[in-house]
Write a structure and sequence with these properties.
Layout lengths: L2 H27 L4 H20 L13 H24 L2 H8 L2 H13 L5 H18 L8 H23 L5 H23 L5 H27 L2 H4 L6 H13 L5 H22 L24 H13 L1
């Protein structure tokens, strides 16, 4: 098996695990607030996060070099976590994924003012084409928009904003700082709101919350292995395999079927996202490559960005 095939296979495995992670969120979401789910998921992720935080030997303190940007990123991650978990709880899995797939399009747009990126005509058309796909999924005027749809959109927007901030300041911040602040922000904010929504949980549901953290970190490790094995242009599109997992798991666990509008809209969004990734992989078409270097799903604070862990691993290997 060549390196690219291995990378693709590892990525497919990773996103299959992520899909199981989302199924558990949806199951728990029928009984608990997203605030409670996010809080305990972050709590259970702390031991795993600590193992990585201890490996960052870069000299420095925990004070960020760009405190305002770091605060904005932490806030965006909190919004992403709450919004994504709520969307998974109330929407069909396929619809949620289709809307979250708009993130690469939004990253391309945000890269213009925040990174000084120049978006040329073809990529601009791809973005517009993809956003039309989002409208097909939402079909405003033909079906009632729910809070879940707005939450999924909010998650896509906020995760894109957080990703662009990392691209903007990541090289000037310690990996431990980039990893720690979103996790702490989720823990503190969701913890302060927890008394308002807390519902006692049986041991089985506590175990499911622990599985959310475990699956997120396990999937993250598979993504890291995928990028270490294959080229980014091969590995990155594998995230769209989640729509297939959504169809399978949605039918098995929730008796969900993908309606025609969601299927068409998701196809449009995926096609535009793939085109943007392919354009960025070509030399001379982009200086920043913000989409190609966004190497994980929307960041929820349960597990840090895969690119952050990759940076830490490469720093250790260079020592």
């Amino acid at each position: 098996m060549n390196s690219n095939a291995k990378g693709a296979l590892l990525a497919l495995t990773a996103f299959g695990i992520f899909a199981i992670h989302d199924v558990i969120i949806k199951i728990l979401g029928s009984a608990y607030s997203p605030i409670q789910i996010v809080f305990f998921s972050v709590l259970f992720s702390f031991p795993l996060a600590t193992l990585y935080l201890l490996r960052d030997t870069t000299p420095g303190t925990l004070i960020p070099n760009h405190p305002w940007w770091m605060a904005a990123r932490a806030a965006a991650t909190v919004v992403t976590g709450f919004s994504a978990f709520y969307a998974f709880s109330v929407l069909p899995l396929a619809q949620t994924y289709a809307i979250l797939f708009a993130a690469p399009l939004l990253i391309t747009i945000l890269a213009i003012p925040m990174l000084g990126e120049t978006v040329r005509l073809r990529r601009g058309i791809a973005v517009i084409f993809g956003l039309c796909g989002v409208m097909v999924v939402l079909r405003p005027g033909q079906s009632e928009l729910q809070l879940g749809h707005l939450a999924a959109l909010a998650a896509a927007i906020s995760s894109s904003f957080a990703s662009i901030i990392v691209r903007k300041i990541g090289r000037e911040e310690r990996t431990v700082v980039v990893m720690l602040y979103p996790i702490m922000a989720n823990f503190l904010i969701m913890g302060s709101l927890l008394p308002l929504v807390y519902v006692p949980m049986p041991l089985a549901d506590i175990g499911r919350l622990a599985l959310i953290a475990l699956f997120a970190w396990t999937a993250g490790r598979f993504v890291i292995a995928a990028y270490n094995s294959g080229e980014a242009v091969i590995v990155a599109p594998m995230q769209y395999s989640q729509i297939l997992w959504a169809a399978i798991y949605g039918f098995i666990f929730f008796q969900e079927t993908i309606d025609g509008f969601t299927a068409i809209g998701a196809s449009i969004i995926i096609a535009s996202g793939l085109y943007i990734v392919l354009r960025e992989s070509r030399s001379g078409t982009s200086n920043q490559q913000p989409v190609l270097h966004t190497r994980s799903r929307p960041e929820t604070g349960i597990v840090p960005r895969v690119s952050t862990i990759l940076s830490l691993a490469r720093h250790r290997n260079s020592e």
